Inverse folding.
């Protein structure tokens, strides 16, 4: 925007430009009109001159004739004075008439005729005077009676009238044209002045608006500067200014950060990057490059060397500030990160501790799981053996006790398995062995296996399995998924049936377990798939709350999804979707 | 014919042997692969080897390798007994006849044993 002075708005510049243009046009038009007016006035004067000259000439001719007649009648020379004056005057007048009519061929022709007749008439007058002077009065009388002089005079009068009439026509036409030009001139001048006035009013308005805006801008700038000054003086962050020659100023926070006393401090002895610890030089070089190329250096972390040789971690950023000088002024901000770094170190330490604790927990779960399972394995076999022995003896009480003990051992084994699975999931060691299998057949096996237990819990199991729901999955883990879902449903079925359905949809297999039991609240539905995500008291319903967590992990490890739909009192529907091939959906 | 129970955990080995004997089978527990090889070479016939995989001295894989090297011992069927989730994979990798995952389901154990061995005596209790 270098075509207008700084601070002037573009609309004001345009208005001034248009006004100057209009003024120029007005002056030009006025000039042309005035020139035309002067020209036309000259032509009017010219016509008047022509008429005056004709009248003067004709009057001189008449004077010459009057003088001649006086002399002829009296013979006194005194009567020849008007004649002689006219003789002396007429040649000059005739030349002037010819000159005045040079632009008009018709008038010029008449003037020629007029001049010739005048010369002829004057010649006749001169001859009669000569005859009278030598006493040949008879010849004079005969000349006068012959009417020769009168005919010439009549012809002259006629030409005089014609020339004057023609010139009067021209005069009238020139007068009209001159009047029209005057009107045009005045109208143009009035319109031009009106427009100029309007433009001047517009300029006045725009100048006033610009001034008001500039005042507002200046007020805003002053306010912004005051805010920046306040920010600098508030000493919340370190601020320093520098140019190519070095630091120009810094606030108290920065000086305190680098351990410098303001008293006796010469900022010019320091360079902007002179406080940086040596190993961060590359970052400073990059900042310098960014400042040169973009005017701003994005914030980065580094360490500053304090006056006592210790270090302070900071966040540093800088930007070029246009202060109107040759050397760019740079404003830099410096945030002390000491406290943040301390907190980060503390956070890292706590994180490490937490991670170690989780690792130790998983290791413990793994070891505990294995260690518990080993005696449980032996106990399981021994319990089975004992139960068979007791059943053979036929003691009802002993049979009941043995059966209950067998169940508790089975439950302990299941809990140990769950702990091991959780430890595997936590350590990322849940390995899958996918093989081609039929999910419908697997569901049939699981339902058959759990049917008796479900019957005892008062839940009738029904299975709807499509043929050939084939895919690549880990057979044991799929067994675990359906067993967990069914075991879960059996806990909450409340003497109502449970439906299992297996089907396929394109590249996806679908497995659902639906019960009509107590249902799950909305807010609990998200939690049930979490570790220890129990939603009802363990005193009422057994389990550690790991089954659905493990189930979800197994499903997701297969690339599938598990979801639940439920309302309190209206049962629950668990839906497992599995890609037929792991890694595909 | 006897069943060789190769298991380093004494409690499990004894429980297995006890159950099998109760069921009328002759069962001999040994603590590792080396002891199993020695037992196999004592001249007595063995109808089945129940083999734990993780054992000290000689583990299940090493035992199987040695067994297969000996033409006299190679035909004796092996059923892998392991707590490893990949029991079936383990069994397949050493060419075993079957697998049982620990904790062993006693009924499934008897079912598997029944395929390869005949009872030496009548079961001590009725099922």
């Amino acid at each position: 925007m270098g075509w207008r002075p700084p601070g002037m708005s573009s609309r004001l510049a345009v208005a001034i430009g248009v006004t100057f243009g209009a003024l120029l046009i007005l002056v030009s038009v006025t000039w042309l009109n005035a020139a035309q007016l002067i020209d036309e006035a000259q032509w009017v004067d010219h016509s008047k001159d022509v008429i005056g000259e004709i009248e003067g000439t004709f009057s001189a001719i008449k004077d010459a004739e009057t003088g001649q007649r006086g002399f002829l009648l009296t013979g006194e020379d005194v009567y020849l004075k008007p004649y002689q004056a006219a003789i002396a005057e007429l040649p000059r007048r005739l030349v002037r008439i010819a000159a005045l009519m040079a632009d008009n061929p018709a008038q010029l022709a008449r003037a020629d005729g007029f001049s010739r007749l005048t010369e002829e008439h004057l010649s006749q007058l001169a001859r009669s005077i000569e005859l009278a002077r030598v006493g040949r009065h008879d010849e004079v009388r005969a000349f006068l009676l012959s009417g020769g002089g009168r005919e010439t005079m009549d012809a002259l009068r006629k030409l005089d009238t014609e020339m004057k009439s023609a010139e009067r026509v021209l005069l009238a036409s020139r007068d009209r044209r001159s009047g029209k030009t005057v009107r045009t001139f005045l109208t143009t001048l009035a319109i031009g002045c009106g427009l100029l006035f309007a433009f001047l009013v517009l300029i006045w308005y725009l100048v006033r608006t610009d001034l008001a805006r500039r005042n507002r801008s200046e007020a805003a700038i002053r306010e912004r500067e005051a805010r920046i000054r306040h920010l600098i003086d508030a000493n919340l962050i370190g601020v320093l200014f520098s140019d190519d020659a070095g630091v120009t100023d810094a606030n108290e926070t920065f000086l305190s950060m680098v351990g410098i006393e303001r008293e006796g401090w010469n900022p010019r002895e320091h360079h902007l990057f002179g406080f940086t610890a040596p190993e961060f030089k590359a970052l400073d070089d990059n900042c310098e490059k960014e400042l040169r190329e973009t005017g701003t250096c994005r914030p980065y972390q580094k360490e500053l060397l304090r006056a006592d040789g210790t270090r302070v971690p900071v966040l540093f950023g800088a930007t070029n500030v246009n202060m109107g000088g040759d050397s760019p002024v740079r404003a830099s901000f410096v945030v002390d990160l000491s406290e943040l770094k301390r907190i980060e170190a503390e956070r890292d330490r706590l994180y490490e501790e937490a991670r170690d604790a989780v690792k130790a927990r998983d290791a413990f779960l793994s070891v505990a799981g294995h260690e518990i399972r080993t005696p449980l394995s032996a106990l399981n076999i021994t319990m089975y053996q004992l139960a068979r022995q007791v059943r053979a003896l036929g003691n009802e009480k002993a049979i009941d006790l043995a059966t209950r003990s067998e169940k508790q051992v089975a439950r302990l084994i299941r809990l140990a398995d769950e702990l091991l699975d959780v430890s595997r999931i936590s350590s990322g060691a849940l390995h899958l062995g996918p093989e081609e299998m039929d999910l419908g057949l697997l569901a049939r096996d699981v339902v058959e296996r759990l049917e008796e237990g479900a019957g005892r819990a008062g839940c009738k199991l029904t299975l709807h399995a499509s043929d050939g729901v084939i895919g690549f999955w880990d057979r044991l883990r799929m067994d675990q998924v359906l067993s967990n879902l069914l075991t879960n449903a059996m806990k909450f079925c409340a003497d109502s049936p449970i439906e299992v359905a297996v089907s396929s949809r394109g590249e996806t297999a679908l497995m659902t377990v639906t019960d009509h039991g107590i249902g799950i609240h909305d807010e609990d539905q998200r939690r049930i798939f979490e570790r220890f995500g129990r939603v009802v008291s363990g005193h009422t319903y057994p389990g550690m709350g790991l089954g659905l967590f493990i189930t979800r992990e197994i499903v997701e490890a297969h690339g599938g999804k598990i979801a639940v739909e439920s309302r309190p009192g209206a049962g629950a529907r668990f839906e497992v979707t599995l890609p037929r091939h792991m890694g595909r959906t | 014919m006897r069943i060789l129970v190769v298991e380093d955990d004494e409690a499990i080995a004894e429980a297995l042997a006890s159950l099998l004997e109760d069921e009328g089978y002759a069962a001999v527990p040994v603590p590792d692969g080396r002891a199993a090889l020695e037992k196999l070479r004592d001249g007595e016939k063995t109808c089945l080897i129940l083999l734990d995989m993780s054992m000290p001295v000689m583990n299940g894989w090493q035992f199987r390798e040695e067994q297969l090297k000996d033409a006299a011992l190679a035909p004796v069927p092996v059923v892998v007994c392991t707590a490893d989730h990949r029991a079936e994979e383990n069994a397949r990798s050493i060419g075993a006849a079957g697998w049982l995952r620990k904790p062993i389901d006693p009924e499934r154990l008897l079912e598997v044993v029944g395929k390869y061995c005949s009872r030496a005596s009548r079961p001590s209790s009725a099922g």
In short: The mean pLDDT of chain B is 86. Helices of chain B lie at 10-22, 33-40, 60-69, 87-93, 106-116.
